[in-house]
Every structure is written in structure tokens, then in C-alpha cells.
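Researcher: I need the complex structure. Ligand is B1H. Inputs:
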Amino acid sequence: MDELFNIRWNSKRPDVPRSAVKKPIKTLHYLTIEFLPGRTLKNTLFNLGWHDIFAQALKQKGIDINKIFDVEADAGLGNGGMGRLAACFMDSLATLNYPATAHCIKYDYGLFQQRIIDGQQAEFLDEWQNTGGAWLTARPDEAVTVRFHGNVGSYKGPDGNLKFNYEGCQEVEAFPFDMMLSGYDSHIVSNLKLWSAKSKSSAKRVNYGEYSNRVNEAKEIEDISSVLYPSIEQASGRTLRFKQQYFLVSASMQNVINVHLHKGRDINDLSSFVAIHINDTHPTMCVPELMRILMDEHSFSWDDAWNTITKCVSYTNHTVMAEALEVWDADLVMRVVPRIYQIISEIDRRFREYLTKLKKEPKIIEHMAIISNNSVRMANLAIHASHKINGVSKVHSQILKERLFKHFAEIYPDRFINVTNGITHRRWLAECNPRLTEFITKLIGGDLCKDAQAMEELCRFLDDTNSIKKINEIKLENKKDFAEWLKIHQGITINPESRFDVLVKRIHEYKRQLLNVLRIIYLYNELKNNPKADILPQTFIFAGKAASNYIMAKRIIKLINQVAAEIEKDKVISKIIKVVFVENYSVTIAEKLMPATEVSQQISLAGQEASGTGNMKAVMNGALMMCTYDGANAEIAHLRCNDGTFTFGLSPFEVERTWRDGYNPIDIYNSNKDIVGVIDALNNGFNGESFKDIASYLLNTCTNKDNYMCLADFEEFIEAHKKMDALYRKPLEWGKVVMRNISKMGYFSADRAILDYVKNVWHLTKLK
Ligand code: B1H
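Model: Output:
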């Protein structure tokens, strides 16, 4: 059935008799807990080549096509880069004619709608399906049952082997909805299969007096697909999040097997037809779930099941943050999915046996084990079961291989590879920045959408003053557009002639929005001391959501807004610098902001940001980056030969060494009068609110002091900005660097990333 979805709907289905197809068609199943497609209508029209025709036709009727696009809600099934990456990958897979299905959950509510009220983040329900749900097609024919809890029984089967049955389970219907994701001028579409949880009890008659119990039971089941990342502060939330993960993998693995069998294929040939990708640790339970299906339902032996699965499965790690390397209480796993726990225990037992044979020390075996200390470690399981494991940038992959998963890399050296992330340059350049795209296309010819690497050709025009002037003009026009949009949507006026300095991403301590605010406070202090100080007129634009229970992240949002308000009160300073916080950052807002960005802040503490993709979006749209040596920043900087890059701060290695040697922010404070000024200002407060808590977070000698080393990198950050400002004051030179950077960005197209995955990991069949 899914072949249907991989055929472009307006093209004639190739009439190939099955017997004539010699090689197995290998399809990707991309398992992901997040998926952020943004809006679909514009993208689909664009990919079909119909955008301009529709726009013109509507214009004749006096209708602005953008007004129609604005009706559609973003499908907010994700939180940030990881979910967006999945969407970019599906676009490239379809464009390049590789068959792929992404499996995710049809969350009833998206992440949340963010408003800023009194400077603070307020969260509102995101009912994305009201309009964003228009693209969903219900697939009742593919519904499957997912079982939780209950008891596992065993008995001897007719073949003499041990068989397992499950009794007293909670049965949940996994009901899929398909969303077709178009590629650009391609023969096929990718499919996004979104699973929703339904109670199966509606078919059963309700006994007298039991109705409300039955309703509560149904609600509890439907909660499984209610929200992304349910809070794990309480035990009930942890159970829910865990159930959600098993729900996704059980439904998708059953689907993979059902489709495989439905096509008349042999279950023993699974690995020739199917590549299964674990996107971060959340879907790791696909491994024991597939073991269960193959052994308990298809009578595979342990070894045959394991050999099949390890040929199918690969894993991408997206972060080194400890909280995302999931570990579940063994008791929880045992209680919620008892058969799966048995299988994981056996994988662990065999793995420990293997490590013992390799003569690993007991301490190392414990460290690598899948179950240890009454916990189940998902990353260890994913690595042990995957034939390839990759990080998402060179620096990150190196950290995985040499630090985080060092012991695994020793026993499985060939499994660890790097695939640097990419973005679909169609959405993130051609669609969102038509002025720049038209200009580039005029210069270099050809179809940029098909060949991102062709941008390299721009190099030929680096000495053409008119082209550089045009690049600068386009940026100004895009800034004007954004200013107009901001005025309409948030009632805020910004000056398009000021430099747009942009930091947009999830609010997290490691991403160091705080460091950027410290710089703004420093500039404010400079202007207070001397209103005539030579400081460039700048608009500092922030956007991003903080997790609703992340207190420090929410304090940082408050600080940004209070600094903004304080600056506004000063008639002179507010003419030079202005801070704005754009509400409810989303794919759609990013599409408006990237073309207007001049300075893109990518300032995570080195070693913490696995890749980043906002960096690629910004530079492709003609921004220069202020960045640390982290994630893909390092590769972007390298590709443009380190000229015109503004890199500052400690390297990942230096960060480690500084922690080891003992980091003391007080010493830095005592030796830098600018930092003293900034800390004093935090203590005194902004717009009537003191930020003593943040001052002491930065300085306190408690264990939590300046966890992400804002003070360590402060001075270099300021100095790097001075160099950047000097370049900005020479528009032709700035424009030339911008143009050269754009010319190098073809490498960061998701098309290249997908070709890397296809060649080195998935080995998919290209459909003709
Ligand atoms: C990324 C996450 C993430 N990596 C767990 N990991 C989460 C993991 O709430 N959770 O449980 C939430 C988010 N997100 C991002 O992936 C990285 O931070 C970026 O650096 C990277 O560019 C992106 C895509 O690879």
C-alpha cells in the first residue's frame, strides 16, 4: 500500500510488472518522536511549480496568496532542530526519488503557543489540527493494536521451542494518519505516518454503573498521543512518556512488517527491503519490539532475529546533553512492557557475555551495559543494535567517538561515522527568500533547487561591485518586509536601517542567550556612560520557546524583555539599540526572519550544540555568523576559509580542561571592569526588576556557578564583535564576504546529507 504514497499523485504510475523488478526496493522508515513540517500548502505548490501561477490567478481576483497561506497552522509536532531536520530529510528523500516513510505521533496538541505577557512567557494550547490537520488522511486499514502491562506466559510450542503469550494487557489501538510530503519536481512523495492512540473499549458493552470508569480508561489511553514530551517530574508523567515511546515503535514496527508481508515478500528478506532509522534515543525500543515480533509472531530464533534487525537498524545521536541520553527505571520498563523487558534483559546478558569474552574490565562492562543499577540505558542499546551510528557534525561525531561512546567505538570502530546535518535549501532559500534566489539564479543560471552546489558559481562575481550592492539591497528589502510583519503582528516598530542581530532557537542555558544579553547590557552601560559612544545602531532580535518547567530559561526570557523595556525608556539610547522578543517562534516565523538576518548568533558553549541548523539557514540567507567552535559552526567557518568568520571563545577541548583545572568566574569578574558593570546592572535591575538571582548564578561559588561559562567567553565575545562591526561599517566588503559565504553553502543542503546517509547507512533504492 505504501508504494501508492511513494508515487507522485499527479504523475502516471510507472507500469512496471512486479516480476520485472529484479532488485529489492529498499525503503527507509525514519522513527522520530518529533516532526516539524511547518506549513504545507505553500511548500507543495512550490514543489509542483505552481506557486506563481496560483499567486497570479488569485491576484487577478484581488486576493493575496499569502493571506491564504496564513490560514494554515504550523504542524507543531516538535520542539526544535531535531524535528525540523526530519522534515528537511523527507523533502530531500522525495526530491531525490528515494522511498521513505517517517513515523511520528499525531499529538493532539502541538508544543504550545507562546505569548509574552508582562515580559514573561505564557503558554497557550496549540490546537494545530484545526487547520494544519487538513493534510491528514485517516488509514483505518492500517490500524494495529499495541499492548501494555499484563503478564507474560510461556509454553512449549509444537516445534518444541519456547513460545510466549501475554495476558491481561491494556490494549490500545494505534490508528495512523498519513501526510504526503512532496519533493521538488520528483516522481514520488515521502510519507509521514502519524500514529494516534485510541481506546479499543468502545466496541464493548458497558456494564451498569461503569460508564464513567470506562470514560476515564479511554481518556488515559488517548493521553498517550496527547502532547509531545509529557513532563517527567512525576512518576505518572514518566510512565506516560515511556508509554508514548513504546506506542510509536510498536505501531510502526508492526506496520513495517504488515506492509512487507502484504507485498508478498518473505519475512526472512526483511533487511533487503527495509532500513530503520532511530532518530535520537526515543525510538530505541524498536529493537526489542522487532525482536518480539520476529520471535514471538514469526518463530525466528534469537540469532536469526538479531542478525536481521542489526542489518536494518541505524541510529543518529543528536545531543551530548545528559538529560537526552535516556535512561529508564528498570521497574518501569518491567511493569509497562514486561515482554520487552525480558528481551532487553537477554540482549544485555548476551552483550555482557560478549564483553567478558573480549576481556573488558568489569568496570568498563558495567559502564557499557544496557541494564545497570536498575536502569535501562537507551543509547547503549541503540549503539549495540545499530550497524551505523552517526553524530550530526564533525565536532560532535568526534566527541561521540572519542569521549561519550569511546568504549563502544573501541569494539565497533566501523560503526561510528559522521553525517553533517543539512537543510532543504528549497524551503530555506528558494521559497523564503525569492529576491535572493532570483538574483542568484540570474547570475548563475540553472535550477538552484535541483543543485545546491551550483551556488559555488557565485564566486565568479565576487569582484563585481554591482552584484555586491545588489546583495546588500536585497537584505535591506527583506529587513523592511520583516519590520512590517513585526509591526502588524506584535505592534513593535523596528528600524530597518539598523543592523539586525538575531538569536533564535530554543531557550536553553547551553545555547547562551544569557551571554548575548550580557553583551547588550554592556553596550547599554557604554551608552549610559557616553551617549556619543561609537556604537552601531542595532536591533537585537530574540525568539524561542522555553520548556514550560525550565525556570532558568524562563528567567532569561524575562531578563531579555526587561532589558528591552529599560532601553525603551531612554530616549537617546533607544535610538541606537533596541531589543525585541518575537513571540511564538516557529518554522513559519523562521521563514520570515532568516532572509532579514544580518548577524546570526551561534554562541553555544563549545562541545554542547551537536550541530545547529539555524546557522546554515542564516548564512544561506546572507547573514554572517558570530559563533563558537561548536557543531556545524566549525564546518561553516572552515568552508569559507575562516575569512569573514567571527569565531570566539573556548574550544570543546579547552572547555573540558577549564572545568578540570577548576573554573572560577569570580577571578574573571575581578579582572574585567566591563563584567563588573554588567553584574552591577543585573543586581540593580531593569525596568524595576532586580536580576540578583542571575548575577549570583553567574558568580556564586556554589556548584551551579556559571554552568555554561558565559563569563569565560565574555571578553572574546565583545572583541569579536568589534571586528565584526568594523567590517559592517564597510558595506561593500561586508557584502562580498556575505556573497562568498552563500557560494559555499551548497554543501549544507539536506540533499547532500541524504546522499551521505543513502551511501553510507541506508543503501536505499532510487526509484526511476
Ligand atoms: C537536538 C534534541 C532533543 N538534539 C531530547 N537533541 C529532547 C533531545 O525533550 N527532549 O527529550 C529535546 C530535544 N534536539 C538538536 O538536534 C540539537 O540540539 C541540534 O544541535 C541539532 O542541530 C539538531 C538536529 O540534529
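Model: Summary of the prediction. Confidence is low (pLDDT under 50) at residues 1-21.
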